[in-house]
Amino acid sequence: MILKEKDAYPSGEGRGGDERAYYGHKQEQDVAFQLRREFGEHKQIHVINDLRLEHRGERAQIDHLILHPYGFIIVESKSIVGEVTVNAAGEWSRSYQGNWMGIPSPIRQGELQKQLLHHLLRDNIEKMLGKVLGIQTKVGGRDWQVLCAISSTAILHRDKMPKDVADRVVKTEFLAKKVREVVGNILTEYLKAKPKFSKQELSNIASFLLEHTAQVSIASAGSDSQTATPEPAAPVAESAPHYSASPAPENVSFQTEPTVQAKSLVACKQCGEAHQLTGMYGQYGFYVKCGRCSTNTSMKQPCPACGWKSVLVSKGGREYTGTCRKCQQVFLIYSQE
Length: 337
What we know:
Blueprint: E1 2-4, H1 19-39, E2 46-55, E3 58-68, E4 71-78, E5 83-86, E6 92-96, E7 99-103, H2 106-123, E8 131-132, E9 135-136, E10 143-150, E11 155-156, H3 163-166, E12 169-171, H4 175-183, H5 186-191, H6 199-224, E13 277-282, E14 285-290, E15 296-298, E16 311-316, E17 319-324, E18 330-335
Parallel strand pairs: 1-2, 4-10, 5-11, 10-12
Antiparallel strand pairs: 2-3, 3-4, 5-6, 6-7, 8-9, 13-14, 14-15, 16-17, 17-18
């Protein structure tokens, strides 16, 4: 199940801007697409893309976090065109246009993200996990893994990599298979008495992390707006959202109910058809396919409350909703008949 989609690339910025950022974002989109295709309907494997963390003065952004009954998998995406090698000391090198250069280790970066996530959850554990015989349960005994997803076009020299690195580096096209190997057979692992999160505990952890990343995003957007060109005015919240430990309803993808109920906001960009549409998901997110002219139209629509264009689209049952990244308004975009 996808709990948070991959954030859109900043509007108006293409390859002409930061080319490295553009291809890095495209690689993360490719990874998010593979994870959605494999686990989009999975009931026990949950994916959060672009998870932002802030704790004890430290910040991090996890490209892709996978929650499963036995623990956590952090996936660091890396866009590389060329060859990749890692020496015995764990130092990474890549080739570019025939020249070799050193690069930071994505595995080490993922390990640092894992530490911050662990500390954040540990310091808020009472909001997510219950007690057994009066003793608070922990997350430390769970399975914590870090994987690195490399562009499928890269050439990996696995014979030169330390085994612990080679086991955690995978091309994007094989990532879903690797995730299944790490998680293992859920029923078999349960019979082995392996420590396991209940469905409610997974729900609580997911709800906490989704609210946390939303708060960090709002704070970041607020600081950026002090220097950026002003967007249309949005309602000013009196305080940051307060986390409630109340369990999130299951099978709702942990999304807030729409606060703006409206007719479909999306129509075919070619012929204007608003009824003969089919909601679909592709490499670049949710879209509708027109039954009249077969044109594809993105579901990303500006927020009806404040006009902000950066909106996250999610699906719950037959309804597609948008969540404004500025004012956090949740609104109905399209309802599939």
